[in-house]
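Revision sheet: structure tokens.
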Amino acid sequence: MNTGNYCILNGHLISVYEPSVSFQNRAFRYGDSLFESIRVCNNKVMFLRDHIARLKLGMTVMRMNLPAEFNTENMFEQIVNLLKHNVHAPHARVRLTVFRNDGGYYSPESNDISFLIESELLDGAFELNQKGLWVDVYADIKKPVNKLSGIKTGSALFYVMAGLSKQSMKLDECLLINEMGNVCESVSSNVFMVKNGTIYTAPLSEGCVAGIMRKQILAIAAEHKILAFESPLTLYNLMNADEMFLTNSIRGIQWVGQFRDKFYTNKTATFLTEKLNLHSA
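Predicted:
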């Protein structure tokens, strides 16, 4: 994994080896932060406007002050500068983290923010996995549905616990259950299913993260006149589906091969991946 020698903190290019965040950092102490994982394909920063819009929404929900310079154009320039110095091209993963500045205990002393941009070299563009994923359900803790459910906060212990369960069960991914007992997402992705050529995914009211790739897949489906509905996903629905696939900004689409004793095909996932790569050409 090539993570490069540089990062950007509050607009300043610094060495990743330079101590720059204190032990009083609120992201470290309380998870008082938000982050975006952004894909760079063929030197193109993918869907950045959507990422910044989601980040701004999350900052509003978390009552963080929004600096005037925190906009798509400025963040684009910062990312391009970092990729150049880290020699991360043409494909990369960028993490943009926003955290509330030091001070206070649970109640902050200030709502001003800092931001950190990191990058990591990736091998290629979006590529559908050759072997279908093996998935099952993480049922120990249910995901609550509230106004924090749809944003990506640094308070990710729920996903860490699900990731540990995935490892212990030797799965490729775990499906997450919300407090209504429905599948809302997976550890790192939104969940889609296909039945009789129609696509279904959980609505945001089910507590899933408002995925950037989720938005793109629904747009591609609409563009190609594929029926797509936002509808609660029950375990019964998934067991009777023709396909299941997962989506996130970094990997694009990953098709699921097996859930318990159910096996799936990948016709729709293959088609959508082809169309998705047209956006990154």
